[in-house]
Amino acid sequence: MALHTVLGATGAAGVAVVDALSARSLPIRVVERSKDFPGRETVKADLRDPAQASSAIRGSSHVYLCIGMPYDVRVWQQNWPQIMSAVIAACEAEGAALVFLDSMYMYGPTPLAVPFGELNEQQPSSQKGRLRKELSDQFMQAVSTGRVRGVIGRSADFYGPYSRNSVLYFSVFERVVNGKPPQSLFPSNVPHTYSYISDVGSALVELALDESCYGQAWHLPVGNPATLDEIVKMVNAELGTNYKTSVMPSPLRKLLSLIVRPLKELEEMLYQFTDPYVMSDKKFRDKFPEFTVTSNEHGVRKTLEHFRK
Q1: Residue 51 is assigned to a structural domain of this protein
Q2: Which of 77, 204, 214, 224 sits most deeply, having the most CB atoms within 10 A of its CB?
Q3: In angstroms, how far apart are the furthest CA atoms of the chain?
Q4: What does the pLDDT profile of the chain (309 residues) look like in tens digits?
Q5: Residue 92 CB contacts under 8 Å (≥ 6 apart), including other chains
Q6: CA dihedral in degrees (65, 68, 163, 266; nearest 10)?
Q7: CATH number at residue 216
Q8: Residue 295 phi/psi, 5° resolution?
Q9: What DSSP string describes the chain?
Q10: How many domains, in total, are found in the chain?
């Protein structure tokens, strides 16, 4: 019997996967380390522990690895390899298909091709990128050797309901809902692709249910490339405001990064915002031509509605 287990279910991506599974009336188990999923019985598990991971996944037909961590490479290096190993072993024991929500960090060197696709070279220049490549390689090694069946879905920077760890949230949405103008750490006129979080959840379920997609990495759907100035223009159209984006001077940002940990963590990833960063989702769109991708305008509207509540 099918049972779809979502690991990291209360994060923005986990909620989106649960919503997509619910829309198909599929049986769902939600797993979190400490939080409860509103309105659902929540299995508590520390996925670094193989025994707890095994217990959380027992009986599953499909497992979605959607966990999030603080944006700190030290935390990632300490925890992610343990989690990946434990989850792969648990899925192997159950015969469950594993769906891994991945990022774009493994691509390099920079600047990247415009647009860049799944076959882009993987020589990352950042610590975070090197770790993400190691995790992706570990996953694909387990698939290629027959330990597990599975698929990777790689998301661009996502935004939308519950997405409080996104660049757009910090730069734009959190500020405007509090009556403050947008503020950016990077140039506001550079094109960038973003994924709307509901599309991420729905796309992962599409990949999970089509075994012809297994054994591959897929870029998840994105809206049209947009600059931060264009996103703010959409916000102004929705709110009837006339906000302009202020950009922190580079010398000040570099100075603050010496003492503010989140800024230090972001410094090595700024190539995503200082050069055009345009991800191709053509492979996914060709495979699923009926999939409706959320426009930037609609995504901005729904995000504002959510956070203004």
Answers
A1: yes
A2: 204
A3: 58
A4: 799 999 999 999 999 999 999 999 999 999 999 999 999 999 999 999 999 999 999 999 999 999 999 999 999 999 999 999 999 999 999 999 999 999 999 999 999 999 999 999 999 999 999 999 999 999 999 999 999 999 999 999 999 999 999 999 999 999 999 999 999 999 999 999 999 999 999 999 999 999 999 999 999 999 999 999 999 999 999 999 999 999 988 888 888 788 888 888 988 999 999 999 999 999 999 999 999 999 999 999 999 999 999
A5: 142, 147, 148
A6: -130
A7: 3.40.50.720
A8: -70, 155
A9: ---EEEETTTSHHHHHHHHHHHHTT--EEEEESSPPPTTS-EEE--TTSHHHHHHHHTT-SEEEE-----S-HHHHHHHHHHHHHHHHHHHHHHT-EEEEEE-STT-BSSSPPSSB-TTS-B---SHHHHHHHHHHHHHHHHHHTTS--EEEEE--EEESTT--SSHHIIIIIHHHTTT---EESS-TTS-B-EEEHHHHHHHHHHHHH-GGGTTSEEEPP----B-HHHHHHHHHHHHT-----EE--HHHHHHHHTT-HHHHHHHTTTHHHHS-B-B--HHHHHH-TT--PPPHHHHHHHHHHHHH-
A10: 1
Are the C-beta atoms of residues 26 and 210 closer than 8 Å to each other?
Answer: no
In a domain? residue 139: yes
pLDDT in tens, 262-289: 888 988 999 999 999 999 999 999 999 9
Residue 116 lies in a domain: yes
Spatial distance between the Cα atoms of 5 and 143, rounded to a whole number of angstroms:
19
The CA angle 20-25-31, to the nearest 5 degrees, is: 60
In a domain? residue 82 = yes
Range of the domain at 46: 4-159+193-222+278-294
Residue 9 neighbours by CB under 8 Å, 6+ apart: 15, 17, 18, 30, 31, 32, 37, 40, 42, 66
End-to-end CA distance of the chain: 38
